[in-house]
Amino acid sequence: MARIFTVLSALILAASGLAFDAGRVASAAWNEADAELPAGAFGVQAAFAQRPSEGITHTDPAADEKDYERLRNLALSGDYVGAQRGLMQLLAHDDLPVVLRMRVYVTTISIATIFEDWPQAFSLLNEAMPYLPAAPEEAARMLGAAAQLYATVGETGRALDLGVRAVRAAEASTDPLPLCHAMTALAIAYESDEIFGIAQQWRERQVEACTRAGDALFAANGKYGLGMALAMQGLNRQALEWGETSLVDYEAHAYDAGASDARLLIARSLVALGEEPRRADALLSDLAARYRDHHPAALSLAEVEKLRSALAESRGDTQASLAHLKEAMKHSQEAERRARARRLAYLQIEFDTQLKEQKISLLEAEKALAEANATSAHRRQLLLATGLVGLVASFVLLLLLLRRTLRDRKRYRWGAEHDGLTRLINHQHLRKVGEAAFARAGQAGVPFTAIAVDIDLFKQINDTHGHAAGDEALCAMGTWIRDVVGDRGIAARRGGDEFMILIEGDVAQAKALLQRLRERIVPVVVHDRPMAFTISAGICQTDARTDSFEQLLHRADKALYQAKRQGRDRLACWNEEVPDSTLEASTGSLVVVGCGIQFGRHVSERALSEIQQAQVVFCLADPFALAMITRLRPDAVNLGLHYAPGRDRRETYRDIDAAIMREVRAGKAVCAVFYGHPGVFADVPHRVIRKARAEGLVARMEPGISAEACLYADLGIDPGQRGVQSLEATHFLCYDRLIDPQGPVLLWQVALAGDWSCTRLEADPDGLRALVKKLARWYPTEHEVILYEAAQLPIDVFRAERLRLCDLPEASYKEYTTLVIPPLATELRRDPAFAAMPD
Q1: Beta 571-573 vs 589-594: how paired, if at all?
Q2: Could you confirm whether 813 is annotated as catalytic?
Q3: 675 catalytically annotated
Q4: Class of 713-821 in CATH
Q5: Which of 105, 255, 346, 675 is catalytic?
Q6: Would you state the torsion angle of the CA atoms of residues 370, 374, 380, 385, taken in this order, to the nearest 10 degrees?
Q7: Taking the domain 5-275, which CATH number applies?
């Protein structure tokens, strides 16, 4: 609270359009008002008798608007007393337009705040608040002024509530300026409540909003407030930078009051940082002189003297430090006195308001009681007639409600049993009616056949032509099936692009029905473009082996899958072509693809196609790539769940290996997606491909963009110039490998160097020191190396931190950080056997 009061009155004036029209006008008006205050005067009321004001014409709204502009300019010139007198005369007219009245209220509250006439300020605020619903365009200004006014008296809860309301009202406006001012008010409320972290966020938003609105001074105030919020959180270096920025902006607009506050922030930051004591002392001395000549300044003077005391103490001048501390205590007492006066004025107004409200409530209660007594007799006379009419109306209403309920129940039941897109019955209702039809056919001894129908490559229809085209295809398919089946069977949509038809008949009848359905299928026109598609079907007729309706559907599904495996656009019959042993002996396959480092930029069309077409998809990638893959394949299995803190990674690799091979051996078409290039620094992809091939299964790998490829591009390394050695860091430590210092060397996963247990995920200084010791055989410890991390998103920037080799143990690492060792600055020596070759 003490840190924002010096700018609070000016900010309230700005909310009414006064203080920040121009910085020079604001500063001049403030200084002139101080110079003209009557001796001993504390409020506007005490000065009214000393200032005449021109008459208010009040002939029409246009004249009222002109009077307001004249009085506003009078206030800008520094004659607050004369302006306040005229504005109060304007408010006395009951027919004043509501929007103009709200503007007048905000201005009068601002002037009362400048003069610290708190009773008048809160009285005017209480009068103005009921007009808010009638003037929403002025709501942001009024709520902002109210929020700042409540902040001055310590009512931070109400100030925050009003500040939030002000921001919401401003966001509903097309004018960007109210949002700038409302964010200022809300930031001040948070600062009053000493919630400086959130205040910092709102100050940042204030700077953006005020910059967009073109209000340079409010943008400067936001930068100052941002610096204060950072200073209160102990971030004095950043606070100093924002203080310097706001000072430049304030001085550019000749706003002395704001410039003084910015200088105080700079001095405070310098003292806290222990830097530039002479500059800090000069700033504080100048500020002390300035604040003694302006009103009010007790809080600012107290802070100035405290800082001067701290400076004197740092110089060892205890006598001067004590003198400044006494001055600070004196000004703090004055500030506390004024704060108590504000608080007392607020509480008095609150008390008076509550007392008036109680009296009004009592009078209203007495009036209501009198009216109740007057109407009770009339009500008794109407009671019998009303009761009779009510009974008749209730009876009619019940009949209408019953009719509507029956109609709604019928509609809801239909909706629960049918698919809204194709208007066929849904899978749940199919099970119910299908069980009954299956039982009737069994009792009658007639054949019963299930036909599973599926649109071929429906996902490609959605991806190529859009979901609207897919919906159009489903609607058309539902219509054709209804026309073909009619009342001779049961047709249902089971979900997605799958349909099921049940008929009392044999396989021949089912084939004839499917032939009629195929004849009806024509290209669907979507956005004036024809879209053709085909269907596959599976047929199963009941026989002696059919034990249940579920088994019948299951066999029809298997026949459908067989038709798809045979090439789609065909039918397969369980009873004739698809025995159990044939369907269950399907051969699995495996394809391993890489998603690159940045999935959206690096993944290939071939990899996307493999992901979309596979029956089972496994994924081991970063969270961004995983999120995009699960949008393509919501059923994708996240292999990252196998990792756990402290678990041996070799066990994790075995679990991942087993999970992939389990699905491949089950006859599924499996696609495994790995981060970067699936064959670079990846044991599992190579291992599962070897296992699948050893078992006679089809297995292959599609390449991807690796981190090493990104490294060459980001760091500008050409492997063709001197060659590149690329090793895993722990492998390099374990084995006796020779380094060629005349070419670049890459050590991968340097954070895990020396992790013999394969359980660590963080860097270990001991392991890094061992790595440095071994590298010192070839390189001086002062040799410059690079810690590299590829960017995972297009908006990110790759990391390329340069440091000395000996500083590696103290650096920061991620699990995938790569150590790049540039070659020593030596020229390549020519092999004597090829000395005759030209350069």
Answers
A1: unpaired
A2: no
A3: yes
A4: alpha beta
A5: 675
A6: -120
A7: 1.25.40.10
